[in-house]
Amino acid sequence: xxxxxxxxxxxxxxxxxxxxxxxxxxxxxxxxxxxxxGDACEGCETCVSVCPNGAIILKEM
Length: 61
Ligand code: SF4
Ligand code: SF4
Known about the structure:
- There is one protein chain.
- The chain is α+β, with helices and mostly antiparallel strands.
- The chain has a single domain (2-60), classed as Alpha-Beta Plaits (2-Layer Sandwich), CATH 3.30.70.20.
- The chain is 16% helix and 30% strand.
- It contains 2 helices and 4 strands, in the order βαββαβ.
- Strand 2 (26-29) and strand 3 form a beta hairpin.
- The radius of gyration is 10 Å and the shape is globular.
- The relative contact order is 0.38.
- Bound molecules: iron/sulfur cluster (2 copies).
C-alpha cells in the first residue's frame, strides 16, 4: 500500500493534485491540500509530477 503525506509548509493550495489524482485522494481545506482518501492511492505518482512545490511525499509500505 501507499502512504501519501503533504508538507503543508510547501503547499500553495492551488489544487493541481486534487485536479489530477484519478482516485480523489486529496481535497483543499482552509487553503491547503489534505489527504482524505489515502487508502485509494494506486501509486501512479501523478500528484508528485504535477505538484509545483514538491509538497507531496509518496511512500510504499
Ligand atoms: S500517486 Fe496517483 S493515486 Fe496516489 S495520490 Fe498521487 S495521483 Fe493519486
Ligand atoms: S499540487 Fe502540491 S502545492 Fe498544489 S495543492 Fe497539491 S500538494 Fe499543494
